[in-house]
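Structure, all two chains, one model.
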Amino acid sequence: MTDLAFLPWHRRLAWLLLALVLLLAIVGPWLWPDPARQDLMQFLASPSLAEPLGRDQLGRSVMARVASATRLSLGLAALCVLSAALLGSLLGVLSAWRGGLTDTLLRGVADGVLALPGLLIVLIFSAMAKGGFLTLYLGLALAQWVEYFRMTRARSRLVLASPHVEASRLLGFGPLYIVRRHLWPELSPMLLTMASFGMATAILALSTLGYVGVGLQPPAAELGLMMTEALPHYSEAPRLVLAPVAVLALTLAALVLLRPLEVTR
Amino acid sequence: MAALTQHGLARVLGQRLLQALVVSLLVATLCFVLVQQLPGDMAFRIAAGRYGYDYVDAAAAEAVRQELGLARPAWQQFAGWLQQLGQGQLGQSLVTGGAVLDEVRHHLGATLQLAAASVVLALGLGLPLGLASGLRPGGWADRLTLLWSVVLRTLPPFLLGLMLMLGLSVQLGWVPAAGHGDSGNLLLPALTLGLGLSGLTARIVRDSVLAVVQSDYYRFALTKGLSPWRAFWRHGLRNIGVTVVAYAGVQLILLIEGVVVVESLFAWPGVGHALVHAVFWRDVPMIQGCTLLLAWLFVLLNTLTDLLCLAIDPRGPAEP
């Protein structure tokens, strides 16, 4: 973080946005504790000092709901990306290392998964247990591991065939050393870039499912679900729809801007 | 256009056919797990579907269990499941009772209409803007498309659709918010998907135009005295085309996912809308049918992209 001043402007903006969203996710639920507590007397109450975003159609604190939804989205997305990256890169290295039948089989599976748009996989999983946190997590992680597998495999093959690795092998170093000293430094920057993209995809998929009504189910505070629930009250209180929209757009903007802007070729 | 080489043609078709098979197997497996996962006794539910809930008892459920072999071990049932799929039987919808094949065929037209309209819109916006940005890197068009593509990536289809719906139909009242049948109904969904795809299309076109214009052979063509228009026609167009078509293929995934989201958002009666409904009601045969259809559509579009690439550049893609 010390070299923040040297980053191009969009990176600085991205870090700032990300810090704000993280602050909301970490401090928010602590300041506005219960997202489910109703107070029907305060139906659609206007914003006040204690409740900066007012209350929703059931008298729940919008701030508490937004904060809890942000924490949920970020947490679930981070979990998915970690699992997918771990699974994908391990299989990728394995595939590149072993070659032969292992490689052929893994590539076959990967090609199949790749032909199935991620959202469809997540949809099938979400049908298994509607509103289940675990199935959503599994679906999202399974939809994403292929990307990590493909990239890791392609890069590892190049590295493993290089003279450096050959030299290390001839000197008698074991697989652990080769992974740590040769593969990891080559793979880690790529994995980080992919992880920020994966976070955005996971957050987006979660809120999309919530929005169309097959993701997490009503009492839960979730960004997409909040928009659907607030839509009938749009004319009286547009802020109910706009608050989750703004949080989602800013989070995605932060994650997109974190990467180099150009389309990589 | 150069003739397709037979070797290249066979390779592309073989690869994609294999992919279609693997993906079908994957969807079937997931749906089979889904069925096994559902709470409640399957034999009882099927019996209830046949005779009505009031007339079902344990004996009827047992009869169904024997008849359909539901007591068999899971792998035998799975084999039966795959065999059914292999014979082209997709079963019947648990909600409407109609054959899945008919239901899905009914929805496919609406989906194709929406997809075609949005692709035309995306190309209509993306091609000229991308061309303008690539020919003048750093100019106003370039900066505009960069900003546009970043904004669009932070506005996923359903947010963009929501904004358009609130803006154009709730606030201004120009077009109907959702539905199907009137001519105005196609506008909002197609606009949402088309705008969403146009940003990336413009950037891809821009990058490939820039790469060609800065290449040695293009400069040489200009140096030897060809007019800019002739150089572009003879040396630029085809080389730009390959990259654009190849990357358009990668972006097809956005189209398929977008179709699912946008259809549900605007109540457009296509396959994606049907899929989300089926997930909501846990209508497994319908889920399987819709997913298979969308996956096959995706593979088919990818095959067409591959063939188009091969037709433009008969050398085929560089081996990784």
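The CA atoms of residues 130 and 205 of chain B lie 5 Å apart.
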